[in-house]
Structure formats: C-alpha cells, structure tokens
Amino acid sequence: MATEVLMPRQGQSVESCIIIGWKVKEGDVVTAGQALCEVETDKATFEVEAPAAGTVLGIFYPADADVEVLKVIAAIGESGEDISAMRPADAAPAAPAVEEKKPEAAAPAPKKEVPKPVALQPAADGAEYDIIIIGAGPGGYEMAEKAGHHGKRVLLIEKAFLGGVCLNWGCIPTKTLLNSAKHYVHAKEAPEFGVNVGDVSFDLKKVMSWKQEVIETLRGGIAGQMKRSKVTVLNGEAKLLGSRKVEVDGTVYEGTHVVIATGGSPFVPPIPGADQPHVMTSKEILSIEAMPKSLVVIGGGVIGIEFASFFSSLGVKVDIIEMLDEIIPFMDRGQAKRFRAALKGKVDFNLGCRVTAIDGHDVKYVDKKGEEKSINTDVVLMSVGRAPNLTGMGFEEAGLDFDRRGIKTDEQMRTNLPNVFAIGDVTGKSQLAHSATRMGEVALNTILGRPDRFRMNAIPWAVYSMPEIAGCGLTEDQAKEAGFEVETASLPLMMSGRFLAENGKKGPGQVMVVKDAETDVLLGVHMFGAYSSEIIWGAAAMIEAELRIADIQEIVFPHPTVGEVIRSTMFQF
C-alpha cells in the first residue's frame, strides 16, 4: 500500500509551510530518509524526508505552493499503484503516466522560474507603496512583516543581506560561536558531574561552518516571512530624496511613509597602527581562520566582553584594555567587580587605560597612573563602540535632523521630516536588536493610527558571556542620581537548587534588586550567572507594570528554577 508524505508540523503556531522546491520528480526511486523537497516557515527552512522507500507515485503540490501542515503532499509506493484516493481536492492535476525509458545522458537542469510579484493595490494617496523601509535588520524586516500582515504595501530595501548586522555579523553568529565554546567548556568540566568524555578538542573550521549554516537558515526564514506578508524586497543602496521618495540604483520609489532603519557600524578610533591586518573589528574576527595564542581587546563593553569570554574559554590568553574605570558602563558597579573576579585567571583587565598606538603586534597604552606600558599579542580586537550609519544616503540634502549620535526622533519614532520615521541603532537611543524591533512596532502603530510610544525604562539587556550578565531598569547609582530614596537587596544564584545542581559550587552568580524606598516600586533588577539572559524578561514585565515589591512577592515562580531567586530576593527587604 502506498505511503503518504505529509507536510510536517514545525511548532504549535505554524499552520502552513511554503514548498521552496522539489528534489525529486514523479517516477524517481527513493530510499527512506531521502530528502524529497525543501520547505520554509516564517522562521526557518527544512527538508521533508521520505517516510519509506519506493517510487514517487505522485507530487501533489508544485514549488511555491503554501500548504497546510499535516496535508498529503506526495505519495510513495510500488510502481503502478492507484493513489487517486490520496490526492487532495486542491492538489495540482496529476502528471501523465511515466513511461520507463532506457538510461540516457542527463539533460541540463531547467532554470527555476522566478515567480512574478503579487499585484497589490497602490496606496490610498496614489503612492506606489504605503511604507518604504530602508534597512532589513531586526527593526526593518520585523516592521515590514507586521505591516504586510496588516495589508500594507511595503518595499524593504537592503544593500547586503536580510537580517542586517544582527543576523549576519552580530547577535546570531556570536551566540553560535559562544554556544560551541560552552559545549567545549561543559565537556571539559563534565567529570565533575560524573560524566567522563575523554579527550576534548575544539574544531574551529567546523564551528565556523555551523555558524554559517545557522545564518543562512535564518536568512531563508526571513525571506519566507517577507514572501508570506507580500513584502517587496529590493537589493541596493538607498538615497532619501525627501519625505516620500527614495532612490535605488537610479530608480525613484514613492511611499506614503518612509522608515530609516540603516543600523550602525563598528567605530574605529584614530589610533596609529589600527589599519594593520591583525587589527580586527567584530565583523572580521567572526571569520577568523586560525585560533590565536593571544588576543588584546580594546574596549570593555558588551562586544569586547563576549569575545573575551569566547576566546579565553578556549585557552587563548586575553587582555582587555578599557579607558573607563569599569567594564560595561550600564552594569551595576558591584556586580561588574564580581563578574571580573569570576574571570580571574582567564582574562586580565586593564581599566582606566588609554591605548596610544599599535606598533606591529605591540599594543601600547597609558595606565591610570600615567605610566606607559605595552602588551604583545597575535590579534587585536577593536571594540570601542558602534556609530550610526548616516552618511551617503542623502539625509543631509533631504533636511533630516541628525547629529553624530544619530537621527533625532520623538517617542513615536517620527523625525523632523513629515511621514519619515527612524528606528534602531541609527537613532542612537539604544543599540539593541530588540529595541529596534520595538521601535518598529511603535512606528507602525503610529502609521496605523494606534496610540503608542517607545519607552526606555524597561528595555532589558544581556551580555552572552560565560557567565552571562543581564539587567533591566535602574542600577543603584542611577536610581540615586535620579533622586530616588533607594533600597537594595541581593542573593547568590547558589540559593537555587537547580543552579547548584547544574553549575556546581563554583558557579558564580547573583541577583540584585533595586526599589524605591518610599513607594516600594521595583526600579531595577540586575544579575549575572548562567541563564540570566533567559530570565531577565520577567523583570522587564515587572518594571513596565510598575509593580511593588509586595506585588511581586505574591507571584508564584516554578520550583526548582534559577529564576525563583529573583522572588526570593524580594523577601530580603
């Protein structure tokens, strides 16, 4: 009896998948587990495998078809079997019977036909598009997807790859590398937990290959999102011509609204010797082909700490040179000191120091006492911050109000130009991918006539180092500077039975809570230790809702979890 090939379910929220293309044709003999076709959801692409061996008797849907999950898309069985009862009512017409032929030279594969763009109605005011978005990073592509879902005609312009810096040279590739490093560290530490794994090694080439596979899979997912939401994607460099017009490669496009989401780029200060091949930014070091023996990181911010954590965990000698007196300026000072202590022996921190030159492989700097020093190293990572992408896109000529810090906007992300919005890193408000996404939501809601505004007080942040760091709201110092009468409480993550079981007695970690002593309202939650990045969203919700400590004490947290230490800390007041 013939076997049905079903469109698999990929998560509870996925109702259908688009068939990208078939890898087999009717009449082909296949083996169990062989890839039959490639499909995509709004988040990822994957292959549908043959559930059994046999002949492909029927392919019921063509490439580009959007098919409900658990629907029969093909049939496999013995040649000549009747599969008419399996064919769905909306399936493509059955192909003519396949005649057996003698083997012959394979013909060149036909070119895949490019689907024509979906015809949409022009914007209500006659413009070609309702919204033109410049930049396909998290802010741009997620806004485009949501706008398309609301029936808006959207043009998304990207000069490089979908996903922007975050997906291609930032958030995702760094987390992929860090995850591989964590597997390596956990394997080396496994005997402490009763697991013997033998010799452990790190294959940088395979790690880089996996990183690229992750990137390309997610790029395909974003392309699927755009296709599903009928967003027109245009590859090229954009130039703003005014409130409604954008030029790309000599062609002018008109939109009722224009959204600038051009992001930012690594800032390289004018340090003599910074142009040498072994001096890299976060973009170049993500494609490094050989593991260095030593690394100097110039800058103790988020990017610098993450790369220092990655390389040091693999045995690379790492030095951080930071001009300020402490790492990560928005981190609680006390926790920053404890975090540095957790990396003692792995990373050397040189705080309050200013780099003066990079002379060959010698990084020269002046310490806080004014003494000149130098560190010899294989590779230098320049991670002193990022600058908004503002030049070469016609902003000044169009009359857009901006300075070196970014494009100026109000709480609805509107600029000084009518119908022009700006979101993400280019605004200089917050250099976080999720901030860009939220800004895009605010801009879209404003366009749709829905009241909304971007609020900075409850934006969580995280550093995906080992151990992780995360926070939301005000630190103790920030709260005092803002005029609050402050009370704080803290507990070690070791208070959690799960944390102890999974990280051991040496596992560093702490939760610190900041509250307004007069009103009992939660002002901030700051933590470091394993899982911090996965927990901090709960603190963001509490701060956004302006909950009092007494309110949070009534919330039931699951046990045993690491997150329940936040609740336990609330009872320390």
TrEMBL record:
Residues 88-97 have a biased composition (Low complexity). Residues 2-77 form the Lipoyl-binding domain. Its cofactor is FAD; (R)-lipoate. Residues 98-115 have a biased composition (Basic and acidic residues). It catalyses: N(6)-[(R)-dihydrolipoyl]-L-lysyl-[protein] + NAD(+) = N(6)-[(R)-lipoyl]-L-lysyl-[protein] + NADH + H(+). PANTHER family: DIHYDROLIPOYL DEHYDROGENASE, DISULFIDE OXIDOREDUCTASE. This is Dihydrolipoyl dehydrogenase.
